[in-house]
Sequence to fold (372 residues):
Amino acid sequence: MRAFMLIPLAVCIYEIASLILPLKLPLWPRLLAGLLLLSGLAKSLLYKPTPEGFEIYELPYGVALWFAVVFNFVVVSFFLLLAKDAIWILWKIFTRESFPDYYAALFVFSLSLCATLYGTYEALKLPPVARHEVAIKGLGKDFDGMKIAMLVDIHTDELTNHNAVKKIVDRTNALNPDLILMPGDFVDGTVKARSHDLEPIRDLKAKHGVFGVTGNHEYYFDFNGWMKELEEFGVKLLNNENVVISSGDSRLTLAGLPDRTGGMMGKTAHNIDEALKDIPDDVPVILMDHQPGAARENAKHNIALQVSGHTHGGQIPIMYSLVKKINNGFVRGWYDIEEMKLYVSPGTSQWNGFACRLFDPSEITLFTLRCD
Fold:
């Protein structure tokens, strides 16, 4: 907990020294700028670790938006300041001229502000529809043209509130999908605080139903309460389970894995063998697994298509490589793994831990299945 508080303080001191002081402002604007940076970093103190995950202090929309914007600025400017200071070191080594500290800091400040405002807008706007046709080996002719909508990483919170979720639901229903998949991270907050905001998913409509699996964030906030609430909202959770969907003479198996976080927190562990138990022979399988990291292992089990989220597409360019490494090389879009296709969604909304997207738009994903 002490490190949890010291890290933001160290970042703030670094940014004051590298960004605020070189601007050569009078004392009171410097003090004000320092307080603004601290107000953004104070966001990290809103999360209180508990034995079962986190407790979060709920905020009004305007206050939450303020924290998000300032925190986004702190993160974006931090990476840019590291680049600036690396150039400063090289400048000192290879030249005898004085470094233009003022102009460099002013450039970083201006670029960070523009990137922050755009990135916050991109994170909070209604996601567009990303359409994909996918050929499924062994798909029955009655499923050719089947439309599957996917919503993942909604992260319902103060910013992705009731109105935002309702707009997502309305846009999804307008696609007239045959099946809706929701592979995890529905919420950030307790049932008491966030149930009203997530409730619009009750209105999702699809001929073959709405199915989901848990994401890691479900285990951080009132897990048992959310499992009951999601079932009440009409989401059939597949917990190392599978169901067979039929249309005419054609059949399709849908399987789901609980997030790996569950096993680490004393809940049902991720078990691919159990999830595929008793599946019919020669029936193609679509698998939901919130995190894409196990895709290579999953591909050994004769799965046609795996759909995942979790990565948020990397969110900003400088984080892309790190997110890719953490997730075994998978971060966004399509991957072919042996005979299995993997699609990693960038997510349908934002995560309030860092509500920023730069060149990484969110999406409502719509798959159209085709016979291979």
About this structure: Residues 198 and 231 are 12 Å apart (CA to CA). The radius of gyration is 23 Å.
